[in-house]
Amino acid sequence: MTTNPPESNVDLGLPLVSIITPSFNQAPFIAATIESVLNQDYPHLEYIIVDGGSTDGSVKIIESYAKKLTWWVSEKDKGQTDAINKGFARANGQILAWLNSDDTYESGAIRAAVNFLMKNPNVGLVYGDCNFIDENGIKFGKFNAAQTDLKRLQRGYVHIPQQASFWRAKLWQQVAPLDDSFFFAMDYDLWVRLAKISELRYLPGRTWANFRLHSDAKSIAADDRCWPEMMSVHYREGGSFFSAMNAKYLIRKVLAPWWNWRRRQQIKKALKNPQRNTKKH
């Protein structure tokens, strides 16, 4: 465990940004995640890593970056959502985000998000586009990002890539913490709560992050838990059984084996073609 204050020789006119990375047994990917944060060109940044007691070598990797981290810990927790809450409880930033330990930021992402939020004080959360990447970091698709708002979120039109999202700490303080009963839908739940008190804004064409899909990723390995959690938020917010979201859920439930097979095939295809989609966005 280590605690280091954010750099003091910065332009104090810039808001402090706090990035949280929850981690558990992601040794093959966590160094790339850390590097993508530390290599950002934004000077007023604190970075917090909350590891759940990894046993795969992740802790040694985190320790190698300890002097560049604001705070980190490796100890048993209740899961990813609990780890994120623990990290935000330590955060001092005016702008917040979390980046999972197998995802990465694109260059300039944090500066671009901060610049927009500084120029648009009415916006509470801003998000850009997000690539899909494979185990080797090769891009092979795009997240289906789109503009949404409270009414659309309540109907199930989420379309917010968590990896490419940044929001104001003063709003987090009004809605925190994340609901740690959720394994998947904690971000959807958060977007709804933030949308009730502020404007959300999508910036098309601004690719800020990369969402890594691999065989052990929970989006594939535990997909059967995702939609029931999403539906629980949907119904809590007054969603209808006859909504588009429920129709998607029922279709997805039937097609889940094929859908996950298709995702794995996409990953395998990308691995066989390492030069594919390597162009920077």
Account of the 3D structure:
- This protein is of the alpha/beta class and 281 residues long.
- The protein has a single domain (2-272), classed as Alpha-Beta Complex (Spore Coat Polysaccharide Biosynthesis Protein SpsA, Chain A).
- The protein is 40% helix and 21% strand.
- Strands 1, 2, 3, 4, 5, 6, 7, 8, 9 and 10 form a ten-stranded mixed beta sheet that branches.
- Helix 1 runs parallel beside helix 2.
Question: What are the salient characteristics of this protein?
Answer:
281 residues; alpha/beta; Spore Coat Polysaccharide Biosynthesis Protein SpsA, Chain A; ten-stranded mixed sheet; 10 helices; 21% strand; globular
Draw up the topology in text:
Layout: E1 2-3, E2 17-23, H1 27-38, E3 45-51, H2 58-64, E4 71-74, H3 80-90, E5 95-98, E6 104-105, H4 109-119, E7 123-133, E8 139-142, H5 150-155, E9 165-168, H6 169-175, H7 186-195, E10 199-212, H8 218-221, H9 223-236, H10 244-272
Parallel strand pairs: 2-3, 2-5, 3-4, 7-10
Antiparallel strand pairs: 1-4, 5-9, 6-10, 7-8, 7-9
Helix pairs in contact: 1-2, 9-10
Total discrete domains? 1
The major pleated sheet works out as: 10 strands, mixed
Q: Within the CATH hierarchy, at the fold level, what is the topology?
A: Spore Coat Polysaccharide Biosynthesis Protein SpsA, Chain A
What is the arithmetic mean of pLDDT?
Answer: 87
Radius of gyration, in angstroms, nearest whole number: 18 Å
The level of helicity is 25-40%
Number of E-state strands: 10
